[in-house]
Amino acid sequence: MAHDVQAVEWTGQGLRLIDQTVLPHRLEHLDVRDVDTLVAAIQNLTVRGAPALGVAGAFGVAIAIRQAEREDWDDATRDAAIERIRDARPTAVNLAAGVDRVLPHVPKGLDAVVAEAQALLDEDVRGNRAIGRHGADWILARTPDRPLRILTHCNAGALATAGWGTALGVVRELHARARIEVVYADETRPLLQGSRLTAWELEQSGIPYLIQADGAAPATILRGLVDAAVVGADRIAANGDTANKVGTVSVALACAEAGIPFVVAAPWSTVDLNTASGGDIPIEERAPEEILSWNGTRAAPDGARAFNPAFDVTPAKLVSALVTETGVLEVSSGATPQHGASR
Ligand code: MRU
């Protein structure tokens, strides 16, 4: 079952990551023992998804400590290596937050760092279960009394977290309550997290789904084929503006037009009260080749250039609900993270 999927795991020697670049064709793992390999794995999306990046970042500090011992680094070299992990991708606040959470334990040594990183991992799985329950309760109270058609964008499942998933955690909970008719999984251009990863997880869990092109999503919603959209988040600003995979804002706009719920499911660790609003969220821009090629073959004229932002920002007024492990904030009604309950 996909909810047993462990995207990030500490083996005692290093990190074991599911290689998300080769799914759904192959289920392979990458063993990470050094900082260069970890930074590359984060940047090429071997490990991805905000909460999974947070856990990888926290264990990454342990990797840096082990490498420092092995290679006789001084503290400055070790700390610079930790900084490289922290900065490997800019948008998901969880990565830096995961590193920062274990940093106070560095003077106590490797075991203390590993214990704190493991605590983060365990909290994330527990939190996702709670997100699933809160999200399902909230959606069921606001949708027709029949199995639902839920749309999701990108992958916010077990692969993107320490386990179970955020948006897909809500879907799993609805499925367990026999309240899923179908999940529309947006394919998620250009790296196909939806068609490769979300579809793989739904397939493993026996949850009915349809993959659609990202460009189809707004019309599917406006045609009345969707009861609610549920997505994850990479960073939620204090005012409720939410960064998630590029294409998310089109889904939110269509939900607002259709009058159906647009739900963001994310742990509190994705809320960044130091970021006032969406305009302050750093948006990762990835290599043009991801857009200019398809399946390894050039798909644009020679000389074509590309704009490749990996994320977009959905304004708070379009977010019907922010579901965290502590409950639900109705953001579009004015309950921002800044003013709402915190941990
Ligand atoms: O570029 P990715 O695959 O790391 O982007 C992931 C997303 O946008 C997810 O929706 C988000 O991180 C939430 S994962 C629970």
TrEMBL record:
Active site: D234 (proton donor)
Domain of life: Bacteria
One function term, GO molecular function aspect: isomerase activity
Gene3D superfamilies registered for this protein in UniProt: translation initiation factor eif-2b, domain 1, Translation initiation factor eif-2b, domain 2
InterPro entries reported in the protein's UniProt record: IF-2B-related, IF-M1Pi, IF_2B-like_C, Initiation_fac_2B_a/b/d, M1Pi_N, NagB/RpiA_transferase-like
Keywords of the record: Amino-acid biosynthesis, Isomerase, Methionine biosynthesis
Keyword Isomerase: yes
Chain positions recorded as substrate binding sites: R48, G49, A50, R89, Q193, N244, K245
One protein family per Pfam: IF-2B
SUPFAM superfamilies referenced in this protein's UniProt entry, alphabetically: NagB/RpiA/CoA transferase-like (SSF100950)
Class of enzymatic activity (EC top level): isomerase
E.C. code: 5.3.1.23
Pathway annotation from the record: Amino-acid biosynthesis; L-methionine biosynthesis via salvage pathway; L-methionine from S-methyl-5-thio-alpha-D-ribose 1-phosphate: step 1/6
Catalytic activity, as annotated: 5-(methylsulfanyl)-alpha-D-ribose 1-phosphate = 5-(methylsulfanyl)-D-ribulose 1-phosphate
Swiss-Prot/TrEMBL site (Transition state stabilizer) positions: C154
Signal peptide: none
Protein family membership: Belongs to the EIF-2B alpha/beta/delta subunits family. MtnA subfamily.
Biological role stated in the UniProt entry: Catalyzes the interconversion of methylthioribose-1-phosphate (MTR-1-P) into methylthioribulose-1-phosphate (MTRu-1-P).
Annotated PANTHER family: METHYLTHIORIBOSE-1-PHOSPHATE ISOMERASE
Name recorded for this polypeptide: Methylthioribose-1-phosphate isomerase
Protein species of origin: Actinomadura miaoliensis
